[in-house]
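hey m, so remember when u said the tokens were messed up on ur end? i reran from scratch. heres the input so u can diff it against urs
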Amino acid sequence: MSHITIAIAATKTLTFVFGATITYLSWTAYRRTDAAELRSLALGFAIVTLGSILGGGIDLVGDLLPIGGPEPVILYGVFVQSTLTMLGFGFITYSLYRE
């Protein structure tokens, strides 16, 4: 296992820990206040966190997955992470503009 593989695994693990904590705190606040904005905020952070984990997982085990083609497998991980980050930030933006 290379140093960069270990670094990716470590940063993705910490991203999951912090993202899960923010998601939990946002969800707890939503349950306490029943504010729809906080529900959207929690969902947004959950999607961003999920994207990071899935993207990192594809990066680490991509060669074992039945995906491929002319593009390197790492591009699939980048695409998944970027797509879910975009969706999550959309929910977070929506939660901040909601009244």
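this time it looks ok to me. Helices lie at 3-33, 36-61, 73-97. if urs says something different then somethings off w ur setup not the seq
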